[in-house]
Structure formats: C-alpha cells, structure tokens
Design goal:
The protein is of the alpha+beta class. It has helices at 20-28, 41-51, 83-90, 119-125, 153-161, 163-166, 175-184, 216-236, 240-246, and strands at residues 65-69, 74-78, 100-101, 107-110, 131-133, 198-200. Strand 3 (100-101) and strand 4 form a beta hairpin.
Length: 247
C-alpha cells in the first residue's frame, strides 16, 4: 500500500474543484476592488474543460448541488444533468456572475441565498454520519468607516476623475462584498446535526474576505492543512462520530 503524504504539496491532484484550470479561472473572474466580473465566458469554458460531458448520475460517488431558483422562489436540487451546469448554477454569485438559465428558461443563482449548508438535503438522500465543512464561521467583523465621509455620486465622480484625490476616498466594503455578505446573512445556526455528524470550520486571516478570489490557492492550501490537523486531533481524542464517518 502506498501511503499518501498529507497535506498534499499539490492539492489540485485530489479534487476537480482544486485543479489547475479551476484555479486559473478564479483569477479570470476575480473582480477588481469589489466590482462585478467582466467575463463569465472564461469560467464556463474552464468548467466545461474540467468536467467535460460527464453527468451527475454517472459519478462514482453520490453528488448533488443546490442553486436558488429565482423563477420559482424555491431551491433547485441538481441530481442529474451535466456536472458543469450544476457547478455553474450553484456558484452563480449575484453581482459576480450572471445567472444560469436552464433550457426551460428558469433563472438559477447561488444556492447559498437559501441554504449555505444544505445538511438537510443530504439527510434526504442518505443515512449515517455526515461531515459538514462550513465556510461561514461566526466572526463579528466591524468596519472603521465614518459614515459621514462616504462620498455622494457627484463627489465620487470628481474624485475618480482626479487621481490626486482618490487617496482621500474612504476605504469601505465594495458592492460585491456587501452582496455576498448579505447573501450569507441568512445562514442557519441550527443545523440539523445528529449525534454522528461532525462540523469542520476552517479559519482564515482577517485580511481574507468574501471577495478574495485572487487568493484561491492560498485559501485552499490553508484549509487543507487545517482539515488534516483537525482530523488527526479528533481521531487522537477518540471521536467516535468522525471514526464512523472515515471507516
């Protein structure tokens, strides 16, 4: 038996979501200073290249994705169809990417608008233990912003036209960051956890926020290292829930 070293030096080898093409794409769609993305075509091409014509029903491990259906006002659970379309629809962050439209004309955006951690959906499809990876760890963040210093449209336009005055503009969260934080504000604090369920919440430095797309590789590597340490520590403590999940 060959023993794999963890954390891997190249985490992209272990997951299609961490592969080179997807990592490159995170840069291609990364907005500047919180502005909207200018080209979603690159993202679509990267997903097509990554997943090809594979369908969800043909995957060797059970997979589903959740998107928010703005046509029906209900969540859409993707259990069949092309993998790339499910990933694209479930990751359509409003303000960053345009919605995904189905062949029936339904408009889909990021599933986090309705349920950022769809553990309830998982329990509909399977019994037994579950591992929840939560990226919405509780963190009370404040902003050193003087509300009265925020420029109006006229002042902002004048400042943008004059490079010398741009430095005097207050540092405030961009539109995209506000949109994403608003989208996650309805996250559940009462996950339907069972006795055999585990929750892992990676932590990141305070300068990483919801729009830090350009730091994709750093975030992935940090989360991987934390996950390995967390699993080892829990196993050493005799965590029966985690043991049941792994075994």
């Amino acid at each position: 038996m060959t023993q794999t070293k963890w954390p891997p030096a190249n985490p992209g080898r272990f997951s299609p979501f961490l592969s080179r093409s997807n990592a490159e794409q995170s840069y291609a769609i990364a907005p500047e200073r919180g502005g909207p993305s200018h080209n979603h075509k690159n993202f679509d091409c990267a997903l097509r290249a990554e997943f090809g014509d594979r369908h969800i029903a043909d995957q060797w491990i059970s997979y589903f994705a959740v998107s928010t259906n703005l046509s029906t006002g209900q969540p859409t659970i993707h259990r069949d169809g092309p993998v790339w379309e499910a990933v694209r629809a479930s990751g359509s962050i409003p303000g960053l990417l345009p919605p995904f439209f189905t062949r029936d004309g339904e408009m889909l955006v990021d599933g986090a608008l309705m349920d950022a951690e769809p553990l309830g959906v998982i329990k509909q499809f399977k019994n037994g233990p579950n591992m929840v990876v939560s990226l919405t760890a509780d963190r009370h963040r404040t902003y050193a912003v003087d509300y009265g210093s925020i420029s109006g449209p006229g002042e902002l336009t004048a400042a943008l036209l004059n490079p010398l005055s741009r430095s005097r503009l207050p540092e405030i969260p961009g539109i995209l960051e506000v949109l994403i934080l608003s989208m996650l504000a309805n996250r559940r604090y009462d996950l339907p956890l069972g006795d055999a369920d585990s929750v892992f919440r990676p932590s990141f430095s305070s300068d990483i926020n919801a729009t830090s797309c350009e730091r994709h590789a750093e975030i992935v590597h940090s989360a991987c290292e934390q996950a390995v340490a967390w699993i080892r520590a829990r196993m050493a403590d005799g965590d029966e829930a985690l043991r049941a999940l792994i075994q």
